[in-house]
Write a structure and sequence with these properties.
This protein is of the alpha/beta class and about 250 residues long. The chain has 7 helices and 15 strands. The structure holds flavin-adenine dinucleotide and FE2/S2 (inorganic) cluster.
């Protein structure tokens, strides 16, 4: 059961000129969050804003979120500093199921934050993990590691191209039996989903619809998912409550 917690900022750093990484103190969220879940953060004049959990430190009782400034809400949240506090609802939504032994993680845009949490969790479970990150150009690179396969559209860092060009550099051994987990912009997730399907791999994606309540009440976040019942082409599911993680085969792209 998700609750509302008043959380203090324990640290804040800027990853580039428009993206902040903020750590909040909240032992309850740190203890129970799983990768793929998100929190809904209060800002003064607007509805709460959703952010994927980027990392947890269960010993210190803290969790991190990455905030890319794209409007007034994110501008306010990214301006928080150590010692500031706000109400945060979470953890929300269904995270990724982590039952396989081998994973390929793909992140782009603000999807690199939940992918970071996935990577930390899978490494702590000694799973085999490959990570592909895609960015527009080198000024956008954040949350990167030398172990990751890096792609940029501009070709000014890593492999020139998109995430699928990065995926195509994986060896047969890396791919065999892997489950693909992808978080990023819709066109990227659609392309990665098609790549996985072509290779016969299971693929799960995290959809980032616009949200309001974050807890399944307002229906702002509905997305089209293939219906289980025969004869019905699709049904509407609430991204916040039924997702945000879905089997990519079920998503109507
Ligand atoms: C489950 C989930 C997880 C998210 N995780 C992160 C994260 O880890 N880091 C991060 O920086 N952002 C994340 N986002 C996106 C973040 O919530 C939005 O950027 C934020 O709500 C925008 O608020 P704003 O007031 O700054 O912008 P607004 O003024 O509300 O919007 C500015 C512009 O961005 C568009 N926009 C707003 N939200 C979205 C969205 N969800 N998808 C597409 N376009 C949008 C608006 O239509 C408008 O054009 C996530 C969203 C969801 C649903
Ligand atoms: S955001 Fe309200 S139902 Fe999903």
């Amino acid at each position: 059961m998700s609750k509302d917690f008043f959380c203090e900022v324990t640290s804040k750093s800027m990853l580039n000129e428009d993206t902040a990484l903020i750590e909040f103190l909240c032992p309850e969220i740190a203890e129970s969050a799983v990768p793929g879940q998100f929190v809904n953060i209060t800002c003064s004049n607007f509805l709460r804003r959703p952010f994927g959990i980027a990392s947890v430190d269960r010993n210190r009782g803290t969790f991190k979120v990455g905030v890319k400034i794209i409007g007034e809400g994110t501008e306010e949240i990214a301006s928080f500093d150590e010692g500031d506090g706000t109400w945060i609802l979470g953890p929300l939504g269904n995270g990724f199921e982590l039952k396989s032994d081998r994973y390929i993680l793909v992140g782009g845009g603000s999807g690199v934050f939940p992918v970071n949490f996935l990577y930390e969790e899978l490494c702590s479970q000694d799973k085999k993990v490959k990570v592909v990150q895609g960015f527009r150009d080198k000024t956008q690179i954040i949350m990167n590691s030398p172990e990751y396969i890096l792609t940029t559209d501009a070709g000014d860092a890593g492999i020139k191209g998109n995430c699928c060009d990065g995926l195509n550099t994986l060896s047969k051994d890396d791919i065999k039996g892997a489950t693909v987990l992808c978080v990023g912009p819709m066109p990227m997730m659609r392309a990665v989903s098609a790549w996985a399907s072509d290779k016969g791999l299971n693929c799960y994606v995290s959809l980032e619809q616009r949200m309001a309540c974050g807890i399944g009440i307002c229906l702002v976040c509905v997305c089209k998912i293939k219906a289980e019942e025969e004869g019905i082409p699709f049904e509407h599911k609430r991204c916040c409550k039924d997702g945000p993680v879905f089997d990519s085969k079920e998503v109507i792209w």
